[in-house]
Amino acid sequence: FDISKLQSIGSKNKVKFELQQIDNKIISLCKHFKCSKLAIEDLKFKSSGKGKNKKQKEFNKLCKNKWRRSQVFSHLKTLCSSYAIKFVDVNAAYSSFVGNLQYGNTTTPDMVAASIEIARRGYKKFEKEWFYPQFEIEKI
Known about the structure:
By secondary structure, the chain is mainly α. 55% of the residues lie in helices and 7% in strands. It is built from 6 helices and 2 strands. Strands 1-2 form a two-stranded parallel ribbon. Helix 2 runs parallel beside helix 4 and helix 5 crosses helix 6 (110-123). The relative contact order is 0.13.
């Protein structure tokens, strides 16, 4: 889903409506594929002081304000509870690195490998000794 053009319009209600429609589409895909869990990265932004320069301010505005993660997060959580889908937030640490080691190849780009790793962590979150996957080391 690409909402970059909506961000430049400036209409907050339009952006909010479109984000809710995206959430509804995600839930309809979960229902279609009979998913029992929806895994999302547990990202928490630390509140920092004022930006040191103009680029830092623009980056913070883009990542914290225009992304509207908390709105998407809470709406997805509400939809999951109403459709009996388990909402799981997982630790996102090293998901790109581990995903590329396990699933990365020429047909699987970085973001796909990371999302597969997030899905694996969400699926096995409440099992013991699951976090660190076993890697095979090739002998030369």
